[in-house]
Amino acid sequence: MEFALRSDPANERLALGLGSAQRRAARSQELLERFAATGSIDLIRYRLISGSDIYAVEAVADSVHAFQRSFTGAADFLKAGPKAKAKYSREIEAKTRLNFAYTYPGSLGIVLAVENERDLLKGELDEVIDVFSEFLDVSDSDAAVDASRHLGPALVTQLCRWVDVNAKWETAVDLVIKRPDGVQRGQFIEKNRFFDLSTIFHNAKDEEPNTFDAKGILVGLDIEIGKFHLVVPGGESFQGGLADDFVKEKTTVGAPYLATINEKVSRVVATGNETRSLKLQKLVPVSTKEGSP
């Protein structure tokens, strides 16, 4: 109706209809806020702002769903700490389930309601907005890695999904959480900020180096191209390159060796996708008298 009136501002019928709808919405909003104030219900104002006045159903659904998963993940982090995988209990899923309350005029505004049990002045979900703020304040790849380590890969992956959805549909988000006592906290995230965050987190890689020993049969070694292949009988197979400090001594393919291998696991912060690279640092011959490796 707002869109139609902007196209035809002289249409009195539309103007009267819009005014009536706005008054009904205001009364409904007032009643809900009164009800929320008498209990332990937080109201979450989630407003999508597009460059145009057109909102695809898919865009709205994706954004709200991604926010719901991030909200649950943030609450779980506050209770259980960082997690590598997004596995939540039925209790936390139920406590953080956002219920549709109403929509309101002005871009595309949705009000969601969630029960927030309070102990004296503090509610269980009061700090969720702080988790979002920590994530949204990230400014570079190093900070993205730090956030992933602190908040956990599971939560950051979900928050990045929320960011990617809004970047894809080029929407800004006005997020405000209102407690029953009237305290409001939130943040306005411009669409360009979603673009920046998406780029930062997709370019950020968390790399974990590790060195280990493996006793096995050297089945391949190419000094020229810098490749090796070691097989542990009845166990793993290791393939990779040669470390810069690898000592190029005489070796025998098919013979047993104790290999010192440098491992690097690189994880893309935004997606959690991992790549593993191995480099051979040292080979020590194993005497056949010691038996099969």
What class, by secondary structure content?
alpha+beta
| Total strands | 12
Q: What oligomerization state is this entry in? A: single chain
Strand arrangement, major sheet = 2-3-1-6-7
Radius of gyration from the CA trace? 28 Å
SSE pattern, N- to C-terminal: HHEHHEEEEHHHEEHEEEEE
Number of helices: 8
Mean pLDDT: 87
Please state roughly what percent of the residues sit in beta strands, choosing from under 5%, 5-15%, 15-25%, 25-35%, 35-45% or over 45%: 25-35%
Structural domain count: 2
Low-confidence regions: none
Measure the end-to-end span: 77 Å
Morphology call: elongated
Helix content: 25-40%
Largest sheet: 5 strands, antiparallel
Briefly characterize the structure.
The protein is an alpha+beta fold. The protein is built from eight helices and twelve strands. A five-stranded antiparallel beta sheet has the order 2-3-1-6-7, sandwiched between helices.
